[in-house]
């Protein structure tokens, strides 16, 4: 209880939730919010192939309120979504290529098939490739039924 007129979990007549974005946040907004994206974010998509999760792609595009751009975009981007499978080549080279258009402070979301799925990438391969490309693994999460997302960011230096 509280003083008369006290309404727990309410601020200025807006319900407050412990869940970022609100407890009743739709799945599309939830995925994009979990990725740190929002309307106006420019997201570059690399490594697209027939096996990508189209529902996840739509959720990201709904969150940013635009289409993702491809590798030929030619301007800076806020984030990169890199679809990667075992056998796609050298991951370190792919990460370095993904940094080309990334703005300072931007992140790379490395999307890999979940363990047990065709093309699954060993986590050790990611933790080995990231620092060579100048990146740090900050988060790994299940992003959809078949894909895992690993957030890669440039480490903050003392001079920044």
In CATH, what is the homologous superfamily? Vaccinia Virus protein VP39
How many distinct helices? 4
Order of helices and strands: EEHEHEHEHEE
Q: Sheet bearing the most strands, described?
A: 5 strands, mixed
Count of extended strands: 7
Structural class: alpha/beta
Query: Would you state the CATH class?
Result: Alpha Beta
Helix content: 10-25%
Shape: globular
Instruction: Bin the strand percentage.
Output: 25-35%
Strand sequence of the main sheet, in spatial order?
Answer: 3-4-5-7-6
Overall pLDDT: 83
What is the radius of gyration? 18 Å
- Low-pLDDT ranges: 1-29
Folded structure, characterized:
- The protein is α/β, with parallel strands linked by helices and 160 residues long.
- It has one domain: Vaccinia Virus protein VP39 (Rossmann fold, 3-Layer(aba) Sandwich), CATH 3.40.50.150.
- Helices cover 23% and strands 26% of the residues.
- It contains four helices and seven strands.
- The chain has helices spanning 27-34, 54-64, 91-98, 123-132; strands at residues 10-11, 14-15, 43-46, 77-83, 102-113, 136-142, 147-153.
- Helix 1 packs across helix 2 (54-64).
- The longest helix is centred in the middle third of the chain and has 11 residues, at 54-64.
